């Protein structure tokens, strides 16, 4: 152990070796414990079905979804660069602003993935659990998606206004 590590407290030594705070390590360990508990509970009933579902989800994600959303992301980031190659500053700003599309799209797609049986009206027996008619979920998912994109657009506008005010004050 180096001398500066010996003089530092245990929290700093852990941060130097682990790379993050002790709180981060604690939260990661708690999430692993929760995942292990959930896995044990899932495997209690139908272990083969659960294992097949996880393997199928991993294969579908890695072989189909990753190439699709990587391709969509590259197309989105490259869109303004094709139209104006001379404006490198504008292209760099566009690459930063792409996140205002990425985040709501990601959240919306995760919601669709989790709730697709209800959104696409694939199962009717959930109506008794939810107390809602099966046909309302698509409209609500579309409203949530629209709200996510609207909030993201408001954040983008606020950032642009704040950046314009800084340029006026500094310039």
Structure keywords:
85% helix, mainly alpha, 171 residues
Polypeptide structure, described:
The mean pLDDT is 80. This protein has a domain at 98-171. The chain has eight helices and no strands. Helix 4 (47-83) runs antiparallel to helix 5 (88-97) and helix 6 (99-119) packs antiparallel against helix 8 (136-170). With 171 residues, it is an all-alpha fold. The chain is extended and about 65 Å long. The N and C termini lie far apart (51 Å). The chain has helices spanning 3-7, 10-18, 22-45, 47-83, 88-97, 99-119, 127-130, 136-170. This is Lipoprotein. The chain crosses the membrane at residues 21-40, 52-72, 99-118, 138-158. Keywords: Membrane, Transmembrane, Transmembrane helix. It comes from Streptomyces marispadix.
Layout of helices and strands:
Blueprint: H1 3-7, H2 10-18, H3 22-45, H4 47-83, H5 88-97, H6 99-119, H7 127-130, H8 136-170
Quick recap:
The protein has eight helices and no strands. With 171 residues, the chain is mainly α.
Decide which structural class fits the backbone. Answer: mainly alpha
User: Please, what is the average pLDDT?
Assistant: 80
Radius of gyration: 23 Å
Task: Give the N-to-C terminal Cα separation.
Answer: 51 Å
Largest sheet: none
The number of distinct β-strands equals 0
- Count of DSSP-assigned helices: 8
**Principal-axis shape:** extended
Report the sheet-strand fraction: under 5%
Q: What are the segments in which pLDDT stays under 50 over at least 5 consecutive residues?
A: none
What's the helical proportion of residues? over 70%
Topology pattern, helix = H, strand = E: HHHHHHHH
């Amino acid at each position: 152990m180096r001398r500066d590590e010996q003089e530092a407290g245990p929290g700093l030594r852990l941060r130097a070796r682990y790379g993050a705070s002790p709180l981060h390590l604690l939260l990661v360990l708690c999430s692993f414990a929760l995942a292990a508990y959930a896995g044990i509970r899932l495997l209690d009933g139908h272990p083969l079905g659960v294992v097949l579902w996880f393997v199928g989800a991993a294969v579908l994600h890695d072989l189909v979804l990753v190439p699709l959303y990587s391709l969509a992301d590259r197309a989105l980031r490259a869109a303004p660069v094709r139209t104006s190659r001379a404006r490198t500053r504008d292209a760099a700003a566009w690459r930063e602003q792409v996140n205002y599309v990425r985040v709501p799209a990601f959240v919306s797609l995760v919601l669709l993935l989790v709730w697709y049986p209800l959104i696409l009206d694939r199962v009717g027996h959930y109506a008794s659990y939810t107390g809602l008619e099966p046909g309302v979920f698509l409209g609500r998912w579309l409203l949530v998606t629209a709200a996510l994109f609207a909030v993201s657009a408001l954040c983008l506008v606020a950032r642009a206004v704040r950046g314009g005010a800084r340029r006026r004050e500094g310039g």
